[in-house]
Specification:
Elements lengths: L3 E2 L14 E5 L2 E4 L14 E6 L4 E10 L12 E8 L1 E7 L10 E9 L9 E8 L7 E8 L10 E4 L2 E4 L10 E9 L4 E10 L12 E9 L2 E7 L10 E9 L9 E8 L7 E9 L5 H11 L5 E6 L8 E2 L5 E3 L9 E3 L2
Parallel strand pairs: 3-4, 16-21
Antiparallel strand pairs: 1-5, 1-12, 2-5, 3-11, 4-5, 5-8, 6-7, 6-9, 9-10, 13-14, 13-20, 14-17, 15-16, 15-18, 18-19, 22-23
Amino acid sequence: MTHQLSSPDFHGEEKEQVTSIGQIKPELYRPKGDQGEGKQGDNCGKIILHRNNLLLVVKILKALDLPAKDANGFSDPYVKIYLLPDRKKKFQTKVHRKTLNPVFNETFQFGVPLNELHSRKLHFSVYDFDRFSRHDLIGQVVVDNLLDFSEGSGDKPVWRDIVEGTAEKADLGELNFSLCYLPTAGRLTATIIKATNLKAMDLTGFSDPYVKASLICDGRRLKKRKTSIKKNTLNPTYNEALVFDIPNENIESVSIIIAVMDYDCIGHNEVIGMCRVGSEAEGPGREHWAAMLANPRKPIEHWHQLVEDKTSMEDSPGPFWTPSPGSAPSGFWTYLT
């Protein structure tokens, strides 16, 4: 069976024969009089280039004959769209439940200068949504020669075969926050600024994200703080400060795990992705922590790539911090080993 996703054929050249796993078909807008191959009627997508507004407008209408990824004989498909080579900005359709022939009818816009179009490509990735594990990649379509398409009264429906793609690294999103430590006050402030391109956890194609920060020592969670919940978004902005009291003599003994969570009013809240900062952290997490310690009283802002939650910790059964008698004023604490 041939599987199809409605995606544009920009150049109309004959393609090398490949084994397809679906098709994506957009109705393309070409200059008037440009005729081409394609099925008539029943358009599945549109790509429109607005030259004056420097906008590339992509409309995905539907996909056909997708492979079944779930035990029930269906899939829960959605589509991610990038304008390569930029993978920072992406769009994503809603998830459609239990279907191999989803109808999307969704429009997306990319702002791009006309003189850059020759070096850009549209990349469509079709996924099967899974609430509790990594989403399965069904296949991909890449569309180039974007300059061939501009606004016009002529249109042409085109089907593009979805070809099997290699599994991508888990794309969970990025988190931007700053760290500021006041040694004399023994206070660390993590200001959660924003997140981008978060993984969709809900069938709407969005999530309800909030950020939870946990103070960790010896694998135990001593304290936790969290931000407000932002509804129906993959790009939330917070600008919220999470404050922890950590005496200067103990700052090297702790780390902070910062997890982006998806709020669920009925079931359990799920971890979208996390990162860790501290002297024992790896790579960017250790570098961010070191920069904070080297610049006391100054907020140090970094972006962090979210990774899958692989932590194993338990809440502290009792106080781990106790006043250090005679060595600090009230409110300063020392870790007891």
